[in-house]
Amino acid sequence: MEREILEENHALQVIVNHHTFTENIEIDTNTELSRIRESIDSEYPDGGLKAWTVVAGVSHISHHAEYHLSFGFVNSWGIFQDYYQRTLLRESSPSNIAWIGSFQYSLILFPALIFGRLFDLGYFRMVLLASSTILVISMSLIAECTKYWHFLLCQGFAIGLASSGVVVTTPTLVLHWFLQKRGLALGFLAIGSSSGGTVIPIAVKTLLPLVGFKWTIRIIAFILTVLLVISNLALKRRLPARNVAGGLFNFSAFKNPLYTLYCVSGVVTYLGFYTVQIYVSVTAIKIGLSEEFSFYLVAISNAGSLFGRYAAGILADRVGSLNLIISFNILTAIFTCIWPYCGSLPSLTATAIIYGFFSGGYASQLTYPLTEFGGSEDLGRRTGMYFSIISLGALAGPPLSGVISSTHGGFHAVGWYAGKYTC
Q1: Alpha carbon 19 to its chain's center
Q2: Rounded to a whole number, what is the distance in angstroms from the first to the last CA of the chain?
Q3: In 227-342, which ranges are E strands?
Q4: What pTM does this model have?
């Protein structure tokens, strides 16, 4: 009997020792993973030639499209909306034409879920090269478009989808290189889209009467090709690829209430965020300003955005990204409401500049808070999920503004609608 008891105690001790050993291994493994993660985080360059070269490379891409949802070529859609209404697509309603820009905006965001996941898995280079190629081809094909569905396919779907490949991956790449100076880096990155959004409308306005629509688009396509070649050569990821658990769409991310709230607020904001940018040229003509000046309003607004992005980049690192985003978002909403009541050249110009300043600052820092909602190992997926979700607002917003404008015969109701949802 005693022998049986001794054997049983021995077996229990073996089991206890096994569990203790296993537990120690798990503790040591977790400790090691934490140590490695802290080591990686502590090694952010936060500057230097390689880091700023990446920022410059992304900024070149930003002349066409950029993460913070204010784009160079894409951000110039207001110019094309006005031009198409008066010339190539005169038989289409403003609301129908707005669907081209709306699909362009939303499709930049919606496939972000896929591209973000591919970035985490290490396919950044392949995605960037393929997206760049499609961008150049689709941009060139716009010159050959003659019907509504042509423009919808090339300028709406193709450019939107291809832009998504760089919208998610390139700013996430910048976050690999900066920690303490992330706001500043994102601000400099966003300046590329503002400068593109300033230069492109002026270039379009200057070139259209000289060389016509087709060659205007071809020249812009050539400039885009040069910028994309430079960017493909300059960009490089720093952190290794990681196949983290959770699949394409990680529902566990929504266990963080701040991330969930941030996604919901993004959808609501983008129901009205692009309204002024798209319709400011149209309102200028409606109040009696010249067509020539109306072309420049988009460029003027984007010039204001350039300074807003730079200022936001400096302030975000000092006051906190969420504090800056909230304050700039409220001010953007206020000037969205003011915009339709501007009945003169000075008031509309001033409003366009101030609106551009605050909306650009808001847009430039959108990705910053996403770094604080989880680890760097699935930052691409987390960012992609966010953009895919807010694309619903970006898709519905501009056409809704067009419908409201047509129903009420003006933009006063549009301003209140867009301002309410932007805030």
Answers
A1: 49
A2: 79
A3: none
A4: 0.71
